[in-house]
Amino acid sequence: MDDGITLEELQLAARNHGLPLESVRDPITPAGLHYLLIHFDIPAVDPRSWRLQVGGLVERPLELSLEDLRTRSARTLPVTLECAGNGRVLMPPRSLSQPWLTEAVGTAAWTGTPLAPLLAEAGLGEAALEVVFTGLDRGIQGGVEHDYERSLALDDAMRDEVLLAYAMNGEPLPVQHGFPLRLIVPGWYGMTHVKWLRAITVVSEPFTGWQQEHAYRIHRSEDEPGVPVTRMLPRSLFAPPGIPDFFDRSRVVAAGPCMLEGRAWSGFGPIVRVEVSDDGGETWADAELEDDAPEFAWRGWTFEWNATPGEHELLCRATDAAGNGQPASVEWNLGGYCNNEPQRARVLVS
């Protein structure tokens, strides 16, 4: 890390939180342990008066209550969500934003109604190009006051698995996770999953809101247009073995057989390989993958490590079915996005 943490970063870190790494042992993350990023403030919402507006280039604008949405066809999907800024602190010089290490991830069972039938019911106009999702949270970023809004191309919005979710792990959405309604776009980084949803608007031109046009882009300077962040790159995490040092989180492990457990995911297809190194990435060995995971959720893996006395640096890396893997290093970008370098853990074996 290049500098000490700033007061502004500390404020963000106190509001938001990552997944305790030991929780990657579990296929479903409890709501209180799931990573959390709140851009502005949590809005106060009265579910009795709240309505979802569906409009823009549609033939039949809709206004739906929470009860209306609950009476529609429902689907539950386990989905892994990861923040696009996960690993930002490990990409110096770091962007001054939420100071994520590697824990900005979680997998929950999201229940809601599919978006595509609702858009079909509203009747898409012939000129429809994108669908804009507007949250109730509002604030200032980059000197611009705005609602939190993101858009999807029409083809992406109409995918069968895109949900308007009102429940998380079988319970109503917690307020911090977007109550009463949020968007779930499986396979995409977390900024896409707009929370506290109030409006869905079909448009005929590319959406140029601040969160779409200026944030979440891979570029090296503000003068470059950059490439938008979309799907999650492959990543693997393991639960660090042994016991931790309270302050620096280094690990102490007894010599002998040691079972490592972890999970891996990608927005480009299923995970087909996970490898582990105990010498800082000099040599690698294949982990054993669990049976196929749900389509949009992380896949479990195990590795029986022969822990020999001395200091070790453990790493893991994943490869997906499309051939994407985790590189030893990632090219720096201004926002600190999409850093999917392998996880590292210092271990002392005695």
**Low-pLDDT ranges:** none
At CATH's second level, what is the architecture of the largest domain? Alpha-Beta Complex
Largest sheet: 6 strands, mixed
Spatially, the strands of the biggest sheet line up as 14-15-22-21-17-18
Number of helices: 5
Number of strands: 22
Percentage of residues in DSSP E strands:
35-45%
What's the structural domain tally?
2
CATH class of the largest domain: Alpha Beta
The third-level CATH topology of the largest domain is Sulfite Oxidase, Chain A, domain 2
**Rg to the nearest angstrom?**
21 Å
Order of helices and strands: HEEHEEHEEHEEEEHEEEEEEEEEEEE
As a percent range, the share of helical residues equals under 10%
Global mean pLDDT: 96
Category from helices, strands and their pairing: mainly beta
Cα distance spanning the termini: 28 Å
- What's the CATH H-level superfamily name of the largest domain? Oxidoreductase, molybdopterin-binding domain
